[in-house]
Q: What sequence folds into this?
């Protein structure tokens, strides 16, 4: 009996996550409504709050699915045997492609904010590791002088630089590069950062 209850609860959570994801795909994060999610999931409104603490927690589960997919896309972009600069270019291109192909889910990942006073759960914070996990190895090859903590920080900075260009472009900001130029501009940025990393670790720039 307990197993049956657990299975039903797991199925309910899956349906709600899939429904919320579909709603975000259709309308964006701002258009997400609890009643529409539960109607699509085929359950009562109260069932959502039995399965999740609130709508924000449901969004976190959707965002974790997005992070998992993004992590898989970045991992698939790695090139065995390639030099570090080539790998970083491949990772940047995969990130651009994922953001462009999944704009609403990708935007929800970075736009969602928990209410004041609510702390992000550790499990969701840990899921964000995929954003820099694949960068660390090729970056470490460029900067073997960095200790693990410094290397992690540099990977975060590298991600932030690429992400910022992508975000401003996809949001259509005045200072953002046109979307049709995004791939080339990100490639130029990564090339510049790669040359800079080499020169930082080797004064001769070799």
A:
């Amino acid at each position: 009996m307990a197993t049956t209850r657990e299975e039903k609860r797991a199925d309910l959570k899956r349906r709600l996550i899939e429904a919320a994801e579909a709603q975000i795909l259709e309308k964006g994060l701002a258009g997400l409504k609890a009643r529409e999610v539960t109607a699509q999931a085929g359950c009562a409104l109260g069932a959502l709050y039995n399965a999740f603490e609130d709508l924000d927690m449901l969004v976190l589960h959707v965002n974790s699915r997005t992070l998992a997919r993004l992590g898989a896309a970045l991992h698939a972009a790695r090139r065995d045997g390639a030099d570090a600069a080539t790998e970083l270019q491949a990772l940047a291109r995969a990130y651009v492609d994922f953001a462009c192909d999944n704009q609403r889910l990708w935007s929800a990942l970075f736009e969602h904010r928990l209410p004041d006073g609510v702390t992000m759960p550790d499990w969701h914070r840990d899921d964000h590791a995929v954003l820099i996990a694949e960068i660390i190895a090729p970056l470490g090859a460029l900067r073997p002088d960095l200790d693990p903590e410094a290397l992690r920080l540099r990977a975060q900075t590298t991600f932030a630089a690429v992400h910022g260009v992508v975000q401003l472009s996809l949001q259509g900001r005045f200072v953002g590069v046109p979307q049709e130029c995004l791939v080339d501009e990100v490639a130029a940025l990564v090339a510049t950062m790669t040359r800079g990393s080499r020169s930082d670790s080797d004064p001769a720039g070799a």
Q: What stands out?
A: The mean pLDDT is 93. The chain has two domains: 1-52, 54-201. The chain has ten helices and no strands. The domain at 54-201 is CATH 1.10.357.10 (Tetracycline Repressor; domain 2).
